[in-house]
Design goal:
alpha/beta
């Protein structure tokens, strides 16, 4: 018998053995939740609990080992605990979903679009290793999904689960592209769309008379879409963009350095940064050693209230930064809940152990390095980091309102079915029905926020304008200097307190508002003139400078340069 025939017979035997087994078995690795609690009704969540997945090269001669992730993200871990806090609060309520327990399945996307999609599929199908004939006819594992933080992962999840009518409610995905109901019919969010923020930034730049600016952005859906909308709005206001550069957190150093050189050579003294926090930090690390010119930074909501950036003293060149932030919120009882998280309460959960080790820079395992040994007696109430910070809750509160939006929708379904059938039996839930009720939900959260969604699945846009001012400890502090609220009448949407703003040079008056460059070009060779060349740069200080006044200044400059013996003048006006 030939070798080929033997191999063929072995393959047939394997196929026959598979066919004789009941059902189908999963050939890949099961996608398991990082945190979970079963309830009568379950909701899903996808957060980037780690900053990146550990890349492994598979030799294709053995079964691949499960994907592992590195660098725990404390802010995202707070998001996960906020979801748990909200579900436990609802489960202890006698007014909302009484006698019904709300459960959760929380997945880790590790800042990866691929893993975010995989998590979404797991939340639809569950994670059974063996599938039966009835597996495809079962309802989804969850009634709705909270997440993701990034716009690109949310696009992946919404595209995957949307055809199955599963609602996705994001707390931090702001790309205006997600408002497209033809592409993402089941997507909603509790954070405003960048449609409003980008236009508000353009209005802000116009208000201060900055007509010559530079622009940097994240090279992803968030940055590309947000910056495109800003540039479109800015150009309508007569604002010129000297450069527009993009980068991503995984770019090589050479790419960061290239963008930095563009900024150093630029004549624009204002830079608009529509950048995700995770992309901006490595970029600023590369920028810090450079002797950069003083720039007026205008930032997007992703980084403009980042404590990790503001409290890094080598980033003090960001002093005077302005940007629109999500409004602050306060939740009673949250801090006590957060500091009571302990590995002993989840002894089999490796994520909670990793969180503890990250918070206290210790290890539960003995190792040869100098890391201290964790004892479990460490006290979270003594720690100040992104996880324990609850003074503002600008983004975390949006997780809270997302959970309550789902709970209120479920509650309304129950109440409506009771009124129709006069029975107290459990309502028939399905994601499509939950989606329809989510679109109509309206309530006031304990944070004081009025929660509802418009036809595009977006909430009302309300921002706080913050200014980075030096504190007593020489770190930068966020000071509110204005409000932008689209729910107010048009003439009252933007309220600004000029007197409270501190600028990059520390002054309290706006300067360098419009820069007009006037360059004198020497006449043709042969004619005698007193100077080889002359250049003058003038700065106009008034916010609402009339064009006639600017023209008068330019004509004066023309006269000065002409009288110096020069024939030709090149005037660049943005």
């Amino acid at each position: 018998m030939s070798q080929k025939t033997t191999l063929l017979l072995l393959l047939l035997a394997l196929v026959c053995a598979r066919m004789s087994e009941p059902g189908c078995s999963n050939l890949g690795q099961p996608a398991l939740p990082s945190l979970f609690s079963e309830g009568d009704i379950n909701i899903g969540a996808v957060f980037s609990l780690h900053r990146e997945e550990q890349v492994k090269i598979h030799p294709f001669n053995s079964k691949p080992i499960p994907t592992s992730c590195i660098r725990l993200n404390l802010h995202e871990f707070q998001f996960a605990q906020m979801l748990i806090f909200a579900t436990e609060e609802i489960n202890n309520s006698t007014d909302l979903l009484p006698n019904i327990t709300l459960g959760y399945q929380i997945y880790d996307a590790c800042s990866s679009v691929t893993l975010a999609i995989r998590s979404g599929m797991a939340l639809m199908n569950g994670y059974e290793e063996t599938l039966a004939e009835t597996s495809c006819s079962k309802p989804p594992l969850v009634q709705a999904i909270v997440g993701e933080s990034g716009s690109s992962p949310s696009i992946g999840i919404a595209s995957t689960v949307g055809p199955f009518n599963i609602p996705v409610i994001s707390h931090f995905s702001t790309c205006a592209c997600l408002s497209d109901k033809k592409k993402y019919p089941t997507f909603l969010r509790t954070i405003p769309s960048d449609y409003y923020q980008s236009r508000a930034l353009a209005q802000l730049v116009k208000l201060f008379g900055w007509t010559w600016v530079g622009a940097i952005r994240s090279r992803n859906d968030y940055g590309n879409s947000g910056m495109a909308t800003f540039i479109e709005a800015a150009q309508k206001h007569g604002i010129c963009i000297e450069y527009s550069e993009s980068f991503f957190r995984t770019d090589p150093r050479e790419e960061f350095q290239r963008v930095i050189e563009v900024m150093k050579r630029s004549t624009a003294k204002v830079v608009v940064a529509f950048v995700a926090q995770g992309d901006l930090i490595p970029f600023l690390n590369e920028m810090a050693p450079h002797n950069m010119p003083e720039l007026q930074w205008v930032g997007s909501e992703s980084w403009i209230t980042s404590r990790s950036i503001a409290e890094t003293k080598q980033f003090n060149f960001l002093k005077g930064a302005l940007g629109f932030a999500i409004t602050k919120a306060k939740l009673d009882g949250l801090w006590d809940f957060l500091v009571n998280v302990h590995p002993s309460k989840s002894p089999n959960n490796s994520l909670v152990k990793e969180f503890w080790e990250t918070s206290f820079q210790c290890s539960f395992e003995k190792s040869q390095n100098t890391t201290a040994l964790c004892t479990g007696s460490e006290n979270l109430s003594t720690v100040q980091n992104q996880y324990t910070a609850v003074s503002e809750l600008r983004i975390s509160s949006k997780v809270y309102t997302a959970v309550y939006a789902i709970a209120n929708s479920l509650h309304n379904i129950i109440e409506d079915e009771k009124s129709l059938t006069n029975k107290s039996s459990r309502a028939d839930f399905n994601p499509l029905k939950v989606l329809e009720y989510l679109k109509k939900v309206r309530f006031t959260a304990k944070t004081g926020e009025k929660v509802y969604f418009d036809a595009k699945g977006d909430p009302a846009a309300r921002y706080e304008l913050v200014n980075w001012q030096p504190g007593e400890d020489k770190t930068l502090q966020f000071r509110p200097v204005g409000v932008y609220d689209t729910s107010l009448p048009t003439n009252h949407q933007f309220i600004l307190n000029h007197e409270q703003i501190v600028w990059v040079r520390g002054q309290t008056e706006e300067k360098s508002l419009c820069q007009c460059a006037v360059t004198a070009v020497p006449q043709a060779p042969g004619r005698q003139h007193r100077k080889e060349g002359l250049s003058a740069v003038m700065t106009v200080y008034h916010v609402q400078m009339e064009r006639s006044v600017i023209l008068q200044i330019l004509m004066t400059a023309f006269h000065v340069i002409w009288s110096s013996g020069l024939m030709k003048i090149k005037i660049d006006v943005c």
